[in-house]
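Worked example 2:
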Amino acid sequence: MKIIEDAIKRGADNLSEFESKQILSAYGIPVTSEKTAKTLEEAVSAANSIGYPIVLKASGENLQHKTELDLIRLDLKDESQVRLAYKELLSESTIPITEVLIQQMLRGNRELMAGLKRDSQFGPCVVFGLGGVLAEILEDVSIRVAPITTFDAMDMMDNIRGKKILEPFRGKPSVDRKTMAKLLITLGKIGLENDAVGEIDINPIKLIEGQPVAVDALIILKRIS
């Protein structure tokens, strides 16, 4: 794909969050509504277009750990908050920021993760598990070698310890398992069709009325000799 080809040509090790989600979206994986902006006025225009509340993030392929770097502003409710958050990011960051990501703010108590790991022996492997901060703490994941079938994807969902999170929760419906299965199958397809994709990390995936939506994503590239 052109986004991947262009990144390799400029010597990038990974895609930006925006570029990563463009790849996912092109394959039919649901992602947040978002736009990039290089100026304050572009950011305000994008926020007004997407609709409040929104999230403002520093954007770029060199910004893999935005939360740790305090480069995210959540739940901005109007234009004045966007202007203040934009100025804060650019003035307080020790990293040069040339672009910001304006993203719809999705609320949801349940967070999952999915991804792709390229194993040296087995090739692309699909990963599914609990997301958010729980991903690192609990390491509750299920892994299958790509390509995977609908049966494999359903089995992955049933094989995590915290599978109850997929059931009805606090008045919210259970996860749409068919859509989640399709997402997992598609991740395997991306890995099989793009040798330059070394790793995909989608975390978190929020459940909005049972529908999975990729809120944050990172695609790491693999050098092809």
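The mean pLDDT is 93. Residues 132 and 218 are 14 Å apart (CA to CA).
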